Amino acid sequence: MTMQREGINDTRWVEPEGKKPVRPITVLLLQPPNIGGIRSLLSHMGESGDSIGFKPPLGLLYIATYLRKGTGHDVHILDAQARRMDFDACLRHVMDLQPDVVGISVWTDWWYSAHHLGLLIKQHCPSVHLCYGGPHVSIFPDETLASAPADSIIVGDGEVPFAFLCSMISNGTIHHEFPGLHFKGHELKRGDRLFFLQKDLDALPIPDRTLLPIGDYTSVLSPSGLVTTMVTSRGCPHRCTYCKLFFQKTISRSAENVIEEFRQIKKLGIDEVEIYDDTFTISKERVREICNGMIGEGLQIQWAIRDRVNAADAAILDLMKKAGCSRIHYGIESGVDRILKRMKKNITTDQARRAVALAKAEQFTILTYFMIGNLDETVDDIRKTIDFALELDADYAEFSITIPYPGTELYLESLARGIISRDYWRPFALHPTPDFDIPQLIENWVRVDQLLELRDEAIKRYYFRPAYLYKEIRKVASWGEFQRKARMGVRLLRSLFVGQKRDRRANG
To answer: How far apart are CA 261 and CA 217, in angstroms?
Structure first.
């Protein structure tokens, strides 16, 4: 499996010289429809974003903004998921626009959708140059070039390689020396040229969110409804077994650059920002600079972060709260220290207790995330995790069955131990099928049917407690928020109903 990052690149590639486009071309960046994705039964939030809201495809916004600033190309973005478009609607959009280049963002969960849409585009618009990029491509570069209708792929950060590609298409000349950019019919460049890493994030323009309909992006967790996302750093220094990243370090934007993005978002009338950094507080000094800057300017905007429980700091939490941070997402994953160590999470349950307690003291909205069905985890371990989630009593808890994704240590170890009998991800990468039903999960101690029952039990015990329901009703600030939360509640009930039907079928 060709999954390992072979190298990174230096910043001399950030502003390539002598490659200005000769003529402007039309470029379309696509988020494919959420049709035929990886089996969604394993998550209680379901397949569609309808009940909890959609988030803008930030990666595509970065690429589009970089192109618009540095070239004269006519750049468009289509988010088929937020627009609720099917394949035919996407194809009509492409045929009406007649772009010279189409770039498709690819995650493994939606690989079938991206692959199928690409086939349709090449069938009806054969002259279009089709480029794939995204996390799936970085895991399966060879397989994507071999099986997909792609003319090229980008491995790693996409802004600069994609701009370079469009300039080459504009100039009518193609060469194969640019890092991270690879063409069908040519052997993948290894070493430093396989993967492109953007080292200076401040060199990238702040994403232009007006390139997409702002009203498409909402959240059930936001009182005002309208939200957007932000990334203030890329990369993660941690090595959790269930995660696949391509560089184990963090590259951060400057505090002033982050504050400027908050300014621009505020001017658009968006009142909430979800920061998607793996660990926002990895540099406490930078957090202080950001928060003090926002407080000093009086930037009144709500924002949320993802953080690690072992990074919780009372003074930092107090400062973030004053600066407008209202919600924290904690990936706790298990309520058993042995399993946390097994996952290489490098946290403890006591640290989780302390972090949640500190966040509650500052009156943050708290989300906790748990995974069940991990290596060497027993039914008793899972019940302890559910009990631990109830003990922490966060505002929301997500219970997901662990999926061993391609390229992760979890998947590779499961293969090596025979817990997963065959490599099923590479065949899927080569020949994606709709509604791919993952043939094997981690079942060395707990069967999948038990995992589903335990997941349903966790939902019922957590969300249908009278005290919890009363607390949530009291927090509702508007009719719109009530409607959004009601839709999420219906989705949870539907998930449980499906589970009950499944159990009845299993029991005859």
So the answer is: 17
Nearest to 130 by CA among 97, 169, 164, 179: 169
Q: Alpha helix locations (H) across 243-400?
A: 255-267, 284-297, 314-322, 337-342, 349-361, 379-392
166 lies in the same domain as 223: no
Q: Which of 402, 420, 439 is the last residue of a domain?
A: 402
Residues 6+ apart with CB under 8 A from 270: 209, 214, 226, 227, 228, 301
> pLDDT value at position 237?
87
Q: DSSP assignment of 77-143, as one string?
A: EEETTTTT--HHHHHHHHHHH--SEEEEE--GGGHHHHHHHHHHHHHH-TTSEEEEESHHHHH-HHH
134 part of a folded domain: yes
- Residue 385's alpha-carbon distances to 332, 390, 459, in angstroms, are 10, 9, 12
Question: For 409-432, how does the pLDDT look when each residue is reduced to its tens digit (9 = 90+)?
Answer: 999 999 999 999 999 999 999 999
pLDDT of residue 192: 72
Range of the domain at 243: 218-402
Residue 283 in contact with residue 313, Cβ under 8 Å?
no
Residues 134 and 28 placed together within one structural domain of the fold: yes
